[in-house]
Amino acid sequence: MQELNIALVTIGGLTVALSLVAGLMRNKVYFLSEPMASVILGIVIGPLGLGLFRLSHWADPFTIMEQFARLTVGLAVMAAALRLPQRYLRTHIGSMVAVLVPGMIGMWLVSGGLVYLFLGVPLWIALLIGAIITPTDPVLAGTIVTGTTAEQYIPASIRDLLTAESGANDGLAYPLVFLPILVLQHPPQRAITDWLVSTLLWEVGAAVLVGAAIGAAAGWIERESREHEFLEETSLLSVTVALTFAVLGGVKLLGSDGILAAFVAGLLFNQFADATDESDDQKVQETVLRLFTFPIFVFFGIALPIDQWISLGWAGVALAAGVLLLRRLPIVVIFRQAVRPIDGTRDSLFAGWFGPIGIAALFYATVAHRILGNEIIWGATSLVIASSILVHGITATPFTKLYGHLIDNPQSSDESDQSSAFSEG
């Protein structure tokens, strides 16, 4: 009970403090992001610091992190869906296909190749770790594309692109993660059959259909209730949060991908619900998400496997640096012509850099650890996650402002483009 009170006072106090000074941190103390502060608190109160709190005293640490991460990512993808304009994916279907199919596969192969190169693990273990760190995290991405600074310096088209990608690819990473897991568990022929039938057709396909049906039904009911004045304001404020939990739990009971279903449900709810309620839904979802975001980052700080990081040595440092630089940035630059919101080198560099790795990777890492029990998966993945929290947290505000200034003052870039064209001519 004492540890529960310690968790309540430290995490509650952190949430209050960060909520009151969020604007100050993003504009002045930009080198200390909210996720970074949460991880530091976990280090301080955990076994690496004062030893006041240990997840193992409650239950298996990986089970706690897996379930808390699942809820947090579910809320994050629902919030991402509610932030998007209605029918966004329909009007940007070509761009999203480019980002989510060849883009994700490219990031997976690059990440897996880097793991294989630097850590020397078996190929399918490398591909599994690569798949885990492939998706753009909706929690960390949300801290970059929301708020006054983002609205002032980042065009709405780029914010929507990063939001849509981070919401969709967390669920779509599911088949990438489970292909290596199945291959490591079963003979190749059975693994491929199970992946095609169970993973793709049922766990992914059913998630899309069930999420779409629930989201559309909930949105239609909300609209009808609004028109007939059946809906009270207090009821409205709980609808999307309850919808997230219902979809996560219900689809999981069916054996499908609850995270993907939550995102699809959010998209369809957003499309069918009364448009005047979207801002309220979004605000409530973002508020509840913050209440889950800080604890999971604190838990992550408590569970950091520093000993495993040390054992990786310089190979671990090279892996983290290679993933942050090569996993996403070259892929976005290569496919920029197929992604309509990206217009030119500036957009592709900005969108390519800000693909943070966070709670979604943490969720898949704990799932893989539970199934396979291979410690290198947790050691390598947690190192990359921590590196992304640190590096993307430090660079978020200055890079965002630099990007905004370059957009407002494009003359120097235009002149360089013209000189380059002249020299080529």
TrEMBL record:
Name this protein carries in UniProt: Cation:proton antiporter
PANTHER family (alphabetical): NA(+)/H(+) ANTIPORTER, SODIUM ION_PROTON EXCHANGER (EUROFUNG)
Molecular function in Gene Ontology: sodium:proton antiporter activity
TM region(s), chain numbering: 6-25, 37-56, 68-85, 97-119, 125-150, 200-222, 288-306, 312-335, 347-364, 376-396
Pfam families registered for this protein in UniProt: Na_H_Exchanger (PF00999)
Domain of life (superkingdom): Archaea
Gene Ontology terms: cellular component: plasma membrane
Compartments, as annotated in UniProt: Membrane
Cation/H+ exchanger transmembrane domain: residues covered: 17-401
Topology in the lipid bilayer: Multi-pass membrane protein
Entry keyword set: Membrane, Transmembrane, Transmembrane helix
Record GO biological process: proton export across plasma membrane; regulation of membrane potential; sodium ion export across plasma membrane
